[in-house]
Design goal:
- It is a single chain.
- The protein is α/β, with parallel strands linked by helices.
- It has 2 domains: 126 residues, Rossmann fold (3-Layer(aba) Sandwich), CATH 3.40.50.11890; 169 residues, Rossmann fold, CATH 3.40.50.
- It is built from 15 helices and 8 strands.
- It has a 4-stranded parallel beta sheet with strand order 2-1-3-4, with helices on both faces. The protein has a 4-stranded parallel beta sheet with strand order 6-5-7-8, sandwiched between helices.
- Strand 5, helix 11 and strand 6 form a beta-alpha-beta unit.
- The chain starts with 6 loop residues before the first helix and ends with a helix.
- The structure holds iron/sulfur cluster (SF4) (2 copies).
């Protein structure tokens, strides 16, 4: 396939947390607030004068210092972020919002604060308390937290949090979601004209860049894809289509390795991915806008932290629906080592998806930067072979019957 016009531009933006667009926005006087979790309603950080970045630590090598402070039994995402913070990699931040959604996030935020890792004079940390259940009580809890903690925090930085500003924030967020959906929908085709790698370069950029600054290039890419011809030989390279689920994943090399091993990633359900975090927020004109944004976040969120039984079941149904819609042959579920939420969820998926939904599953636990791992390649290749054998058996069964 012909290269996407802006692919290199987007790839470069993923090379540094303090990328060119972050620098540009800050030079214009915009405040940059970091998060590490989907449980902060993102549109609330797309207001005029402020933007958000989901922290990542590109090109991570050693995480010894992060491990020294957080121990070797915590998730490597948090350790890698702490390591980068202590190296001075997040000095550009004006703020950091910690959800305390998992104890390791809280530990990370405490260390950043106690060790003075972000030294901008006006830097402010906000610790929020997000709900454990996604139900009406959880929505009310999130609403109170945002009203009494988050909005005053933004106001203290001079940010307009009026209803008009909130609506503008939702509109900007929705525009990014619409464009990504348009781009991502090409993956439903039998022979998609965009690879998973290309798609996730764009998708990750929407988390680590000021959204208003990437909209034009996303729009051009969506236009370009309307006429881009798929690779006629893709069938030889990709022998299976998969949905990728699991914990936080910002390692684009992981996606690359899975695809180089022969599995085209056509849909996802992981943090830093598309579903449900890049689905539009639909507002009505009758209810309080802040309440609607909070409800959307709590009720849509597919985080395994939400432990109500109905949501546990709903999460599996959601993945089943996506896998069918994007015509996947199987599901890969990956978990960051020492992530408690996903350790449980992964074990559950590994048993329930094959037995109750008929999906073959490859279950992987991984390090933060595991993209180049030979072991990953071997496991994906073995999974693809098992999918092919299943297909052959199915075809034989159909012929015999
Ligand atoms: S898995 Fe849950 S707690 Fe972890 S980052 Fe995602 S939304 Fe947050
Ligand atoms: S990967 Fe798991 S343990 Fe790590 S920050 Fe996310 S939810 Fe917490």
């Amino acid at each position: 396939m012909k290269d996407l016009k802006h692919l290199i531009y987007f790839e470069n933006l993923l090379q540094e947390a303090n990328n060119d667009l972050v620098k540009e926005a800050e030079a214009e006087g915009q405040k940059c607030i970091a998060t590490v979790c989907s449980q902060i309603p993102e549109p609330l950080l797309c207001l005029p004068g402020v933007f958000t970045v989901r922290l990542s630590a590109p090109r991570t090598g050693s995480i010894d210092i992060g491990t020294y402070y957080m121990t070797s039994l915590t998730c490597e995402y948090c350790r890698a972020i702490l390591e980068r913070a202590l190296e001075g990699g997040y000095q550009f931040l004006d703020g950091f919002i910690d959800t305390c959604a998992c104890s390791q996030h809280a530990d990370l935020a405490d260390n950043i604060e106690q060790l003075d890792a972000c030294t901008k004079p006006e830097f402010k940390m906000l610790h929020m308390d997000t709900p454990m259940k996604s139900d009406p009580n959880g929505v009310n809890h999130m609403y109170r937290q945002c009203k009494t903690e988050l909005l005053p925090y933004l106001q203290s930085m001079g940010i307009d949090t009026s209803e008009d500003a909130l609506r503008k924030g939702v509109e900007e967020f929705n525009e990014v979601c619409r464009l990504l959906k348009e781009i991502g929908d090409h993956r439903k085709a039998d022979n998609p004209n965009i690879t998973g790698y290309e798609y996730y370069v764009l998708c990750l950029a929407t988390y680590v860049c000021p959204k208003d600054k990437i909209i034009d290039k996303l729009r051009e890419t969506a236009e370009e894809l309307k006429t881009r011809k798929p690779d006629p030989d893709a069938g030889k390279r990709y022998r299976a289509r998969v949905l990728l689920a699991g914990s936080e994943l910002d390692d684009i090399n992981f996606i690359k390795t899975v695809e180089e091993s022969g599995a085209l990633i056509v849909a996802d359900r992981f943090c830093f991915g598309t579903f449900p975090d890049r689905e539009e927020v639909v507002l009505n004109d009758d209810e309080d806008v802040l309440f609607q944004i909070c409800r959307d976040n709590v009720m849509k969120c597919m985080c395994p932290r939400y432990m109500n039984t109905d949501r546990i079941l709903e999460r599996k149904q959601y993945i089943d629906k996506l896998a069918k819609e994007y015509k996947a042959d199987g599901i890969i579920v990956q978990q960051m080592k020492f992530c408690n939420f996903w350790a449980y969820e992964r074990a559950d998926y590994q048993h329930v998806f094959p037995k109750e939904y008929g999906w073959p599953v490859l279950s992987i636990d991984r390090a933060y930067s595991s993209g180049a791992s030979g072991q990953l390649r071997t496991r994906v290749q073995a999974f693809i072979e098992s999918l092919e054998i299943k297909k052959i058996h199915k075809q034989k069964g159909a012929t015999t019957a």
